Amino acid sequence: MIGCPFKIQLGDIMDIIYMKEALKEASIAYSTYEVPIGAVIVYDGQIIGRGYNKKEKLKNPLAHAELIAIDQATKYLGQWRLTACTMYVTLEPCAMCAGALINSRIDRLVIGARDQRMGCAGTVENITCHDKFNHKIQVEHGVLEEECSSILSDFFKMLRSKR
Amino acid sequence: MIGCPFKIQLGDIMDIIYMKEALKEASIAYSTYEVPIGAVIVYDGQIIGRGYNKKEKLKNPLAHAELIAIDQATKYLGQWRLTACTMYVTLEPCAMCAGALINSRIDRLVIGARDQRMGCAGTVENITCHDKFNHKIQVEHGVLEEECSSILSDFFKMLRSKR
């Protein structure tokens, strides 16, 4: 049997489209002087949760892009389970956000850039696909990696030039 | 130089007093048919954050006792850092909550019962004191362990008897 290359390409194109939406969220964070990280959650072809990092604005260590998007998506669906959903996030989730994704039972996680310091979807730790936990997430790295990485390095360069 | 045994005992007594407060929170969860887990955050001898598990009530996977208490404490202090604070929690935090504690830069974490399935303060994983992360928390296990463990086993026994 011959596989269908079109289907695979369509999946890739959709991943890029949704990662661009996550990048839009990251840009809002950038413009408000927050570390530019953005996330969206997709269910049945529709974005049902969006978030960008608001840690400094809200003075709250929980206000990461991923948690804000999860909160919105669960409210939209009216349940705590995000089964059959995919999160697109510009930077690999930290332990808190990776743990929140496990708790939400999300199916799939698509990541832009790796986080070499705090990344818990395979880089420093692997919370999203852990042998002993009761849920494992299908994880993909490297979608629009350069753009997701550049927005962060540009941000820190801008901050240094302002000081 | 001879150490002061009174000081050590006073610390232990305070830990028990605050863990009893966390158990009060867990009892509220029990009475609302939520898995009974409770947490309090103490700063300068005062409880500045309290929380109990509300996952089912709020239909939200983020509504763990620890996150609710962190949210309250940061609002009280008007900053995202919980330096010089201690969290008392009846059950060992999961990855999400352990990660949130790291993100909040909390000093100390006192735990009642261990969580053999999802515990990320040394039992399944060690997020709270990880070699590579930028913050390490002083963790103590086993304060009022029997009470903290019993309230959970009683709850699940009650649920089974109702079915």
Task: Give a structural overview.
The structure is a homodimer of 163-residue chains. The mean pLDDT of chain A is 95. The longest helix of chain A has 27 residues, at 5-31. The first copy, chain A, is globular. In chain A, helix 1 runs parallel beside helix 5. Chain A has 163 residues and is of the alpha/beta class. The first copy, chain A, contains five helices and five strands, in the order H-E-E-H-H-E-H-E-E-H. Chain A has a five-stranded mixed β-sheet with strand order 2-1-3-4-5. Chain A is 44% helix and 18% strand. The A-B interface holds A 55-56, 58-64, 67, 70-71, 74-75, 78-82, 94-100, 102-105, 117-118, 120, 124-125, 127, 130, 132-134 and B 55-56, 58-64, 67, 70-71, 74-75, 78-82, 94-100, 102-105, 117-118, 120, 124-125, 127, 130, 132-134.
Shape of chain A: globular
Count helical runs of chain A: 5
Which residues of chain A sit in consecutive blocks of at least 5 with pLDDT less than 50?
Answer: none
Instruction: Give the N-terminus to C-terminus distance of chain A in angstroms.
Output: 61 Å
User: How many extended strands of chain A?
Assistant: 5
Structural class of chain A: alpha/beta
In helices, the fraction of residues of chain A equals: 40-55%
Rg of chain A (C-alpha, Å): 16 Å
Main pleated sheet of chain A:
5 strands, mixed
Share of β-strand residues of chain A: 15-25%
For the residues shown, what is the average pLDDT of chain A?
A: 95
How do the helices and strands follow one another from N- to C-terminus of chain A? HEEHHEHEEH
Chains forming the largest contact: A-B, 40 and 40 residues
Physical arrangement of strands within the biggest beta sheet of chain A:
2-1-3-4-5
Oligomer: homodimer
